[in-house]
């Protein structure tokens, strides 16, 4: 299992494990699929935490040489704050400096490169750094982009579930 691989690597090297939010640590409600594309306030506060994955995050967080973080995206700035508030409640052990949320409202991108934004973010964040970087996501388009990076080990969320 990938968690055992991460633990083994951490015996000799520093490891950073980032988790996506929607569909990974928070329920992704397909019936409300387009609601996140509006400036709706408090959209995130009703999300159900996926406790199995949050427990894995906590277990990794407690291991020496492992840093745990969030790398998520949202359409609008107000959603960014909603996600941060949700994390404070549901994943209180996370360090503030390890919470990274990309707001599409603040950056220029097109549909062609949208799914590589997380890849670029992690590559920039860990440029010239000594961490072995893992990212856990559920979006196959993001995963496909990250697989092209030699700096990131990307894992589908299903690899963490026994």
Summarize the structure.
This protein is an alpha/beta fold and 162 residues long.
Structural write-up:
This protein is α/β, with parallel strands linked by helices and 162 residues long. The chain has a single domain (2-127), classed as HAD superfamily/HAD-like (Rossmann fold). It is built from five helices and five strands, in the order αβαβαβαβαβ. It has helices spanning 2-9, 51-61, 77-90, 117-125, 140-147; strands at residues 15-19, 66-74, 99-103, 132-137, 152-156. Strands 3-2-1-4-5 form a five-stranded parallel β-sheet, with helices on both faces. The radius of gyration is 15 Å and the shape is globular. The mean pLDDT is 89.
Number of contiguous helices: 5
Instruction: Please count the beta strands (DSSP E, at least 2 residues each).
Output: 5
Main β sheet profile: 5 strands, parallel
Strand order of the largest sheet: 3-2-1-4-5
Mean pLDDT: 89
Q: What proportion of the residues is helical, as a percent range?
A: 25-40%
Q: CATH fold name, please?
A: Rossmann fold
Please tell me how large the radius of gyration is.
15 Å
Number of domains: 1
Give the class-level CATH name. Alpha Beta
Distance between the termini: 8 Å
Shape: globular
Structural class: alpha/beta
Low-confidence stretches: none
Strand content: 15-25%
Task: Give the topology, please.
Layout: H1 2-9, E1 15-19, H2 51-61, E2 66-74, H3 77-90, E3 99-103, H4 117-125, E4 132-137, H5 140-147, E5 152-156
Parallel strand pairs: 1-2, 1-4, 2-3, 4-5
């Amino acid at each position: 299992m990938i968690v055992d691989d991460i633990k083994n690597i951490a015996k000799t090297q520093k490891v950073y494990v980032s988790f996506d939010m929607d569909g990974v640590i928070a329920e992704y409600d397909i019936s409300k699929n387009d609601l996140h594309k509006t400036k709706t306030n408090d959209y995130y506060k009703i999300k159900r935490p996926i406790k199995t994955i949050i427990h894995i995050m906590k277990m990794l967080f407690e291991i020496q040489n492992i840093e745990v973080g969030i790398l998520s995206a949202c359409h609008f700035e107000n959603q960014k704050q909603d996600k941060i508030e949700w994390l404070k409640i549901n994943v209180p052990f996370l360090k503030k400096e390890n919470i990274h949320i990309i707001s599409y409202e603040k950056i220029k991108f097109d549909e062609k490169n949208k799914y590589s934004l997380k890849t670029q973010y992690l590559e920039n964040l860990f440029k010239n750094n000594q961490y072995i970087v893992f990212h856990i996501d559920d979006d196959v388009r993001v995963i496909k982009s990250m697989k092209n990076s030699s700096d990131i080990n990307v894992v589908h969320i299903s690899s963490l579930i026994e």
